[in-house]
Amino acid sequence: MPTEQTSQPLIHARGLTKRFGTFTAVDAVDFDVARGEAFGFLGPNGAGKTSTMRMIGCTSPSSSGTLRILDMDPETQGPEIRGLLGVVPQQDTLDEELTVRENLVIYGRYFGLSRAECGRRADELLEFAQLSERRNSRVEPLSGGMKRRLTIARALINEPEVLLLDEPTTGLDPQARHLLWDRLYRLKQRGVTLVLTTHYMDEAEQLCDRLVVMDKAKIVAEGSPRELIDRYSTREVAEMRFPVGVQETLDGQLDGLADRIEHLPDRVLLYAEDGEAVAEAAHHRGLRPETVLVRRSTLEDVFLRLTGRSLVD
Amino acid sequence: MTAGTADRPPAIEARPGAPSGLQAAARVFEHRAYQYRRAFRGSLFGSFVNPALFLLAMGVGLGGYVNATSPEAFDGVSYLQFLAPGMLAGAAMQQAIFESTFPVMYGLVWRRIFHAMYATPIGPRAVAVGTLAWIAFRLALVAAIFILVAWILGAVASPLAILGIPTAVLTGLAFAGPMGAFMATQRTPDKFSAIFRWLITPLFLFSGTFFPIESLPSALQPIAWLSPLWHGVELTRGLTLGTILDDPVRAVIHLAVLLALVGVGAALFIRIVREKLAA
Q1: Checking CA distances to A49, which of A60, A217, B157, B185 falls within 20 to 30 Å?
Q2: What gap in Å lies between CA B143 and CA A188, rounded to an integer?
Q3: CA A279-A283-A286 angle, 5° bins
Q4: For A173, what's the count of Cα atoms within 13 Å in the CB-facing half-sphere?
């Protein structure tokens, strides 16, 4: 049935589970990734994102469930599948004994490309990763952002069908993150399917067409960033910070001001259609928070709503 | 080929498929060659200088004294000729221990390049086999230079010495497999110095390298037989002195012990690398 095959998802998981001994890292998750989309796994550390990515990357066998990647079975066709993937692991795995360019060339060799082809692609990718000037430099002295870009360039050497990125910008400064997002956005424009994990909601909002929220080994919600916010949060949030000790004594004084109220250790979040109106109403009740910030709802709020916890502790 | 393959963009058809085990291991080997390119000169120079210094100091210097006081102590061969094969086998062991310690830590823990390889069509077996193949290559190089130096210094009595190269490779691999397997289970190289001090150094000293094990107290001699290095030393000595065919059964036993160790060590190494990569 060829017509059905073409519409099949690039990655298809049903009841996908990963256990390490008695610990269940990924608990019966279902998801599909379509060609050309940017798909994200959003969740805090330990939610099972990396274990899921390693199963997709065919470097970690699943304990149970179904997983199909590019219409192949990871269990029997791991090397073939890996040949069509690009992997950006959470920890850099660059060879610091080699130069920037050598890292790309030798990696291309792993995919069976000729040396000439590896060299050609390496030069192109160095251009793309804005590392051409550092081509003959050793990897060790590069900045974190440069290493990340080199890792992404390396993952593209085989012109992969799917690029897997595990926490691509964790540990980078804002400027380096934006540069990286820009490069990933360009890849998306070119039609590369991106699958990424992150615990940064801004990253998920920037990059993902669709995402699943993971918590404690399970998927707790799925949709586009906009859909998730619409479904699980209000349009706006009024964040109030009270003087030390005051928040504990508020005790019902905020009731009825907003659709939903979250008490965090350092501030109170009031969810409502109109944040300014909430702030004003609070003022009328004689409440005097130290600061009031009215903002749009984000995926962070979605996560808080779904799990009762913040993404980044 | 499934029905669906035809619907994919043609680019996929043009892609190289999964490599054979040999191809995959060859690419891992190539990676090591890239790394080595930079250290090549210094390392090669050391491979010349080390045996030259040792053979001169101990073989010619100390040996001159030994030969003068007890000319028949080594069955009529000079001490230099007795010592050279022992040093060769010992050097192979040490080289193999180094090559299977830090590069394995580098690959699995420090820079995780083995993990990077496994993200491609390269499998854990190819990672392990390619690593051992590189160690074999390094051992062959070191042994060839050693034999050349020994020959120049007159420490080689038979053209069979050329077979000392594969023998050194086997002797080294008999250590590299088990050592690599052990290091693959470690998070830090902390145990390395203890292994070197309590295992490698005593083996180096008491495996018939510097003196025949017959000089050991008779209670200790069976322990020397357990030493893989002793089998390597005996085999190498038979080759460089040209006496190997005097007792072919003995030679075959030495060879069998080494081959068995290489096989078991390599199998262990492959298995542990797989466990570490494909968790």
Answers
A1: B185
A2: 53
A3: 145
A4: 4
Beta strands in chain A (DSSP E): 11-20, 23-33, 38-42, 64-69, 85-88, 162-166, 193-198, 210-215, 218-223, 236-241, 260-263, 268-272, 291-296
Chain A residues near residue B18 by CB distance under 8 angstroms: 77, 79-80, 83
SS3 B235: helix
Q: Measured between CB atoms, does A138 come within 8 Å of chain B?
A: no
Interface confidence (ipTM) of the complex: 0.89
Which residue from A102, A129, A148 is spatially nearest to A187, judged by alpha carbons?
A: A129
The pairing of strands A260-263 and A162-166 is: unpaired
Window 38-67 of B, Cβ < 8 Å to A? 38
Distance CA A11, CA A58 (A): 12
CB < 8 Å to B277, chain A = 59
> Which residue, B171, B177, B175, B173, is CA-closest to B254?
B171
Task: With beta carbons less than 8 A apart as the criterion, state whether B167 and B232 touch.
Answer: yes
Which residue, A109, A120, A105, is CA-closest to B23? A109
- pLDDT tens digit string along B208-267? 999 999 888 888 888 888 999 999 999 999 999 999 999 999 999 999 999 999 999 999
Interface test with A, best of B120, B125, B127, B273 (most A CBs within 10 A): B120
B19: chain A residues, CB-CB within 8 Å: 79, 112
Give the integer Cα–Cα distance in Å for B200 and B203: 5
Q: Which residue from B106, B164, B92 is spatially nearest to B135, judged by alpha carbons?
A: B92
Q: How far is A279 from chain B (nearest CA, A)?
A: 52
Mutation site for B-interface testing, chosen from A96, A106, A161 by largest number of B Cβ within 10 Å: A106
